[in-house]
Amino acid sequence: MAKLTVSDLDVKGKKVLMRVDFNVPIKDGVIGNDNRIVAALPTIKYVIENGGKAILLSHLGRVKKEEDKPGLSMRPVAERLSNLLNKPVTFVPTTEGKQLEDAIDGLNDGDVLVMENTRYEDVKDGEYVKRESGNDPELGKYWASLGDVFVNDAFGTAHRSHASNVGIASNMAQTAAGFLMEKEITFIGGAVDNPEHPFVAILGGAKVSDKIGVIDNLLAKADKILIGGGMTYTFYAAKGMKIGNSLVESDKIDLAKEILDKAGDKLVLPVDSIVAEKFDNDVAHKTVEGDIPDGYMALDIGPKSVAEFEDVLKDAKTVVWNGPMGVFEMSNYAEGTLEIGKFLGTLKDAKTIVGGGDSTAAVQQLGVADQLSHISTGGGASLEYLEGKTLPGIAAISDK
Ligand code: AMP
Fold first, then answer.
1. CA pair distance 300, 332, nearest whole angstrom
2. What architecture (CATH level 2) is domain 6-181?
3. Helix, coil or strand: residue 337
4. Whether residue 207 lies in the annotated active site
């Protein structure tokens, strides 16, 4: 790819600042799920095994007031990282000053240091000053001064211009992508900029309004767009079909009409739905074709739709999927999402890309993640990437 990556760098003996995504769920100091720490290991290991000194920065949650700080300390993350790497990790309970600088000066080649949550900088003396989230120029410059090179492996924040990604990069001679970031750029960036055809997008989830930008951008690039999930019924309403009590965005019906006119047969809507009288897993449900009867709401796509979607997908060379086909959190309405996920797993000649957020949760929960080419780690970032927007965190990475 055109961007510099960590494997292009000579890190030996260097202080390598690394922006990672350690934004893990944490409650009372206990980490709920350490997937994100595990996902950062390849880049961290690469740096230390090649003789670099790894200085890790990440945000954790949102810090808006002084009282938010104790519960959002990076200390438990540093401890977990130490366990995973099976070596000591230095934790520095601050984001600037002598204690941090001395600890960095004391590092030997191959050592690892984790500094405190970058968002502690958002609150100073009780005031919400947003030095990190507002990309305070002095803060980015200061952090950059602590290292020799910068590696950004945090795709999840790439759509934001913060001091710990863009701020540092703009004060560094060289910024490289870590391996996770590189994979996101290769797969999502590759699908958007240079897809192998046939290119099929599958868009689902609750709302049309969240996906307008993605639909617009992909209409120009994809060969087919398959629509599922709750947003289907705003399109049904736009076609004058009955939708019962299904999810609908009344103020987006005109927009849905415009999209349908523009898209022609590129946009494929479900032909059948699983419907129920209540938003509840434990009520009677049935399959209906076309119109949704009065008193019912549509909660999943039906088997005929699944078969039609699979027929379109079977020849695809690139597939991007964002948003579940139904209320996958309830087992009776998870079938559409599960079947599509399983089918994507059988497409061995295609690049199959899941674009973050709920779709990532869905393929993980349904156990099909391993069979797909790429599961994005970023929700908001992957949506904006699919919208064709320039992500500031990626733009700030040096070209090769
Ligand atoms: P999104 O965050 O836009 O990708 O939406 C994901 C959410 O949409 C999930 O929580 C699903 O339960 C929900 N969803 C999917 N299909 C439907 C539907 N037919 N009716 C209501 N909610 C749905």
1. 9
2. 3-Layer(aba) Sandwich (3.40)
3. helix
4. yes
Measured in Å, residue 344 CA sits from the centre of ligand 1 at 20
Determine whether the shortest distance from the Cβ of 206 to ligand 1 is under 6 A. yes
Same fold, 6-181 and 188-386: yes
Residue-range domain boundaries for the chain: 6-181, 188-386
**Exposed e or buried b per residue across 115-144, where buried means at least 16 C-beta atoms within 10 angstroms of its C-beta:** bbbbbbbbbeeeeeebbbbebbeebbebbb
- State yes or no: is 52 an active-site residue: no
Residue in 302, 357, 378, 393 annotated catalytic: 357
Dump pLDDT digits (tens) for 5-29.
999 999 999 999 999 999 999 998 8
Q: Is 329 in the pocket of ligand 1 (CB under 6 A)?
A: yes
Which of 211, 274, 358 best tests ligand 1's pocket when mutated (most atoms within 8 Å of CB)? 358
Distance (Å) from CA 258 to ligand 1 centroid: 23
Q: CATH topology for 188-386?
A: Rossmann fold (3.40.50)
- In this predicted structure, the answer to whether residue 358 has a pLDDT above a threshold of 90 is no
> What are 198-253's pLDDT values in tens digits?
999 999 999 888 898 999 999 999 999 999 999 999 999 999 999 999 999 999 99
Give Cα separations from 274 to 85, 155, 187 (angstroms).
Answer: 47, 36, 33
